[in-house]
Here is the input.
Amino acid sequence: MGSLNAMSGKICAVTGATSGIGKATALALARQGATLILICRNRQKGEDAVRELQAASPNSAIDLLVADLSSQQQVRAAATNINHRYDRLHVLVNNAGAMFPKRMESVDGIEMTLAVNHLAPFLLTNLLLDKMKATSAARIININSDAHEQGKIDFDDLQMQRHYPRGVGMRAYANAKLANLLTVYELARRLHGSNVTVNALHPGYVATNIITFEGASGPVRLLKPFWPMAKPFILTPEKGAITPIYLACSPRVASISGMYFEKCAPIASSPVSCDKAVQLRMWGASERLTGGSAG
Ligand SMILES: NC(=O)c1ccc[n+]([C@@H]2O[C@H](COP(=O)([O-])OP(=O)(O)OC[C@H]3O[C@@H](n4cnc5c(N)ncnc54)[C@H](OP(=O)(O)O)[C@@H]3O)[C@@H](O)[C@H]2O)c1
Here is the structure.
């Protein structure tokens, strides 16, 4: 997808590029001539991804930054690194995501699903915003999910301390994706009139590593033996990457911001995600949970 060298001269950062949608997105950007910054938590996997991308796209410039994005200190270090080493940043793809069947906390004492799926991209984006504003035109792309439609945010229990349902961690994941979408819309308003756009997307149901059923509890764990059989019938990572690649590269969306996409087209997200008061409240809560440095 996209013409050869269409992204030549563009610097693009992709989080979670070691597998799934992130790796497929990074590969497509490399093939179109982008300079890539891969932000990965596991050095070995990151180096394997760099080798794989370079084999498929030999002229690519690819930089690896190792950061476990569940740690705010590591998010900050990754952002500092990019801010020092690059004079511009054209594209940031906030892709890294994970599900946690049992409630866990990050090194910062934050519920892991919220830390990885929402607070990490929120903080990283805000720390890179000045760099992106100093770039002629820049795009932020957040891989969200239609799971956000199931999200029900309790501002008195954002970290689900009172009740973390059994299963694969879907309720916490839905809440974190909703939290992130709310702040994407708020950020778009804050960036109005600037050279930076921000959009979110649902990639479809994609056969990746995100659901493993490891540690799952309750009836849902009975689905584990059937999962490998279902995988061939859902999207490949390459197909799941089509919308993020479109949002990163296409001239058609150069000035589109604050939208939610599926299959390369804007669609409506859940009613609560469009509530400006909730967006603002989530922005404030996210700032507090990331040390108040954002925005
Ligand atoms: N697959 C779907 O059907 C689907 C549907 C809707 C939305 N999404 C979203 O798509 C995005 C990509 O997921 P995927 O389906 O491609 O899953 P995946 O294959 O599991 O890829 C997730 C990526 O995120 C990385 N990651 C996880 N936790 C991290 C952390 N703490 N720090 C840094 N990197 C971390 C993983 O690194 P490791 O390789 O080290 O684990 C991996 O590179 C996620 O945001 C997900 O929520 C997926």
